[in-house]
Amino acid sequence: MTQLRTDLQIISEWIKPNTRILDLGCGDGTLLSHLSKTRKINGYGVEYSIDNITTCIEKGVNVIHTDIDKGLSDFDVDSFDYVVMTQAIQALHYPDKTLDEMLRVGKQGIVTFPNFGHWKCRLQLAFGRMPKTRTLESEWFNTENIHLCTVNDFEDLCRKKGIRILERTVVDNEHRTSLGMRLLPNLLGEIAIYRIQRR
Amino acid sequence: MPEQIPDDSVGLVTPETLHFDDELALQSGRTLPEYDLIVETYGELNDDGSNAILICHALSSDHHAAGYHSMEDKRPGWWETCIGPGKPIDTNRFFVVSSNNLGGCKGSTGPMSINPETHKPWGSDFPIVTVKDWVISQKRLGEKLGIKQWLAVVGGSLGGMQVLQWSIDYPDAIKHAVIIAAAPKLSAQNIAFNEVARQAIRTDPEFFDGDFYAHDTVPHRGLMLARMLGHITYLSDDSMGKKFGRELREGKFKYNYDVEFQIESYLRYQGQKFTGLFDANTYLLMTKALDYFDPASEYDNSLSTALQRAKAKYFVVSFTSDWRFSPERSHEIVRAIQDNDLDVSYAEIEVNDGHDAFLLPVEKYLNVFHAYMNNVAKDIQGGDA
Predict the structure, then answer these.
(1) Which regions of A16-162 does DSSP assign to beta strands (E)?
(2) Helix B188-202 vs helix B220-234: angle between axes, to the nearest 10 degrees?
(3) By the number of CB atoms within 10 A of the CB, which of A100, B246, B313, B316 ranks highest?
(4) Angle at the Cα of A46 (from A41 to A52), degrees rounded to 5?
(5) Is A147 part of a structural domain of the chain?
């Protein structure tokens, strides 16, 4: 098996075996496929791109074609142990509403996103350009990322919504964390990973 | 007609009629003492019978799902796009069975058959059969063919409804359920369209209360109107606009009631063609089967409860421009499946062609369908997939 994406490896370690998972924006189904083999989880992926859906199905991953921005009305309250959303929140029209929906249908939420507060982003902005990094590769005009945020922004939103942060990790693109990142996550973390819960 | 049969076709096929002696108690309370089912099969059944796929047909189709009956055939079977070597329902690895539903007019027992009691055609006295009745008859068909469990039951539209019913009524006899462009029950609007179609047929003076065979005639006008109406609901506004727009046959208005717009011409052609091919009583019966379909009604009107007994793995497909059975209707099915923690994948294909899209070579649809059927093939025992 090829190397699992950084944030997915960390998430896999957070997820308890034999649980039920909903993966929002599951892409090609890598995480669910990995978790069903290593953690014996069951659950569904939610995806909007038909090509990704085809790949998921090819892998035997259960996937539901849904526009996350339209809500998760297909799913009942607390019907999943974890609702995971990796590198997708920044591409949604209503990320705040989706957070509410995640914690409605799931007992816990796991969210990862590229930290826009990383020093490389700040530096490029300081020189007057939209940031392009290893985690944010697109040009400003063709990016899907319409709601980028920083570690501080995200935690601020959680506070306002009364969402409890159970765990936070920030890493760089190579899966590494460091004392520096732990001390200054908003400046040194490239990818932020959160485990959250409704209060 | 095919000068040469394409490589990805099942080729020349010959239907076979199977007779069933055991009586069939119908949902309506009536009984069919005996009956025939006409069947086509494609591919080879493997030794342990684990590679069999049942195709369920929609309102106006039949057992002839793929291939050609002769080199003179103008067109192949109705689902040639999806059934054949290398196609989603790959006859190199699956044994495919397709039958004409009871009440049909293409060889299975139906209103045109002779009623053994009167020695005359049943006509409108043929008992109304339902989706549930069809499923029982298909279960018996499988048993006759030596198939204990269908690897998959597959269907679009009314065919998809049979698949859903299958998964509820015989949870142990179906491994995968593929439900395309269907709905868990008809809406009031769906029933309304069906009723207009029925009225068109029943008020045709040539209908003779369904006994038009005795008068050596056919309710052409009624059946044609019913088909024209049906056709409108199979296409989308968009696809009709793209295909015909407001194009005139002769370039300018004639200020009379002749055929002027291309769409008028098309609908009339489709309607007329149909009256030569299809039986009016069967059409009536099929629309009633659609109207009555509501598997949840036996389970406190909850589809989730109905599916508690189900064990199949599901694949549900809808088409964005299908307003007859819109994606929202497929979502209802998916939701009920999820409620029961069953395996399900759902794809919504973006396409302009309306309800008819399930029969068309839409690339993204065929790709995702193929991907699912690849997974189905992994469940063939003996591992020759």
Answers:
(1) 20-24, 42-47, 63-65, 80-86, 106-114
(2) 160
(3) B316
(4) 105
(5) yes
Total structural domains within chain A: 1
CB-nearest partner of B345 from A42, A62, A79: A62
Which residues on adjacent β-strands are paired with residue B344?
B314
- The CA distance from A15 to the nearest CA of chain B, in Å, is 19
**Residues of chain B whose C-beta is under 8 A from some C-beta in A?**
315, 331, 334-335, 338-339, 341, 343-350, 364, 367-368, 371-372, 374-375, 378
Domain residues for A62? 6-198
Residues of chain A positioned with their CB less than 8 A from the CB of B371:
54-55, 57-58
Q: Least CB-CB distance to A44: which of B315, B338, B347?
A: B338
Q: Is residue A138 part of a domain?
A: yes
- Looking at the domain assignment, is residue A1 inside a domain? no
Contact between A171 and A10 (Cβ < 8 Å):
yes
Span B126-143, pLDDT tens digits? 999 999 999 999 999 999
Global pTM value: 0.95
Cβ neighbors of A27 (< 8 A, separation 6 or more) are A47, A52, A86
Q: What is the CATH number of the domain that holds A23?
A: 3.40.50.150
Q: What is the pLDDT of residues B194-204, one digit of tens each?
A: 999 999 999 99
- Count of other CB atoms within 10 angstroms of residue A52: 18
Positions of B marked active-site: 157, 322, 355
